[in-house]
Specification:
Blueprint lengths: L3 E5 L20 E2 L2 E2 H11 L4 E6 L3 H11 L4 E4 L5 H13 L4 E6 L3 E2 L4 H8 L7 E7 L3 E2 L8 E2 L5 E2 L9 E10 L13 H10 L3 E5 L4 E2 L4 H7 L5
Parallel strand pairs: 1-4, 1-6, 4-5, 8-13, 9-14
Antiparallel strand pairs: 2-3, 6-12, 7-14, 8-12, 10-11
Helix pairs in contact: 3-5
């Protein structure tokens, strides 16, 4: 059973300015709950007990909120922002009680079934280095991109070419093996670096979330979609 999860909450939330100049994006309230609280709810419903939160921008506010939500939360403070991949690699000593662990963006909203439970059932560490949670592009509320991945019948992921549209969008949740970060760069780097390594080995898989995802990127998104979220 997966017992560790990391919530990524260190970023500046630049597109959400001016709100995020004084309030970290994960602490923005939508439908009466902060984005961070909603993320913690997903983790708790999956019976995950070891929770790590990384911090950088307005770090004391994020740490205080995380400790209120789960007093045993471990904090991985980044003096220099390390991006998604570097932030996870730095926190590995706090996560390695399990070979596999979840990571979740602390500013993402998804509704419907708790897919963490279903991802754990689908997880096969013999053939997977990472299992990414996806939604069909048409279910990604507020998303304006071209999509992130193609998904084969057996769950393997491939990337679109530069000018190609892909049918699935990554929604900021993954189940990953700690081995994915072996030989990864030091310092700041994107998750895309380790994902591409898994892709080349045929070990990057996807799971389709049976609900909706709300892409809350700007203050305008809050106004447009905030009333739809409970």
């Amino acid at each position: 059973m997966i017992q560790s999860a990391m919530i990524l909450a260190a970023g500046f939330g630049k597109r959400m300015r001016p709100i995020t100049e004084t309030l970290p994006k994960p602490l923005i309230s939508v439908g009466g709950k902060s984005l961070l609280e909603r993320t913690f709810e997903h983790v708790r419903k999956a019976d995950i007990s070891n929770i790590v939160v990384n911090t950088h921008h307005l770090a004391p506010l994020v740490e205080e909120a995380a400790k209120k939500l789960h007093p045993a939360t471990q904090i991985s403070y980044e003096k220099v922002l390390l991006e998604t991949g570097g932030g996870i690699k730095k926190a590995l000593p706090l996560l390695l009680s399990e070979k596999s662990f979840f990571t979740l963006n602390g500013d993402s909203i998804w509704s419907g079934p708790n897919s963490l439970t279903y991802m754990e059932k689908a997880w096969d560490e013999e053939k997977m280095d990472a299992l990414l949670l996806l939604v069909p592009r048409e279910k990604a509320q507020g998303y304006k991109g071209k999509g992130d991945f193609f998904l084969s019948n057996d769950g393997l992921l491939t990337r679109p070419s530069q000018n190609e549209w892909a049918p699935y969008v990554y929604i900021g949740v993954q189940l990953t093996s700690s081995f994915l970060f072996q030989d990864s760069p030091d310092g700041s780097f994107s998750l895309n670096i380790v994902w591409d390594k898994a892709l080349r080995k045929g070990r990057l898989y996807g799971y389709v979330h049976q609900g909706e995802w709300f892409h809350m990127s700007t203050p305008e998104d809050l106004k447009k979609y905030g009333s739809l979220i409970f």
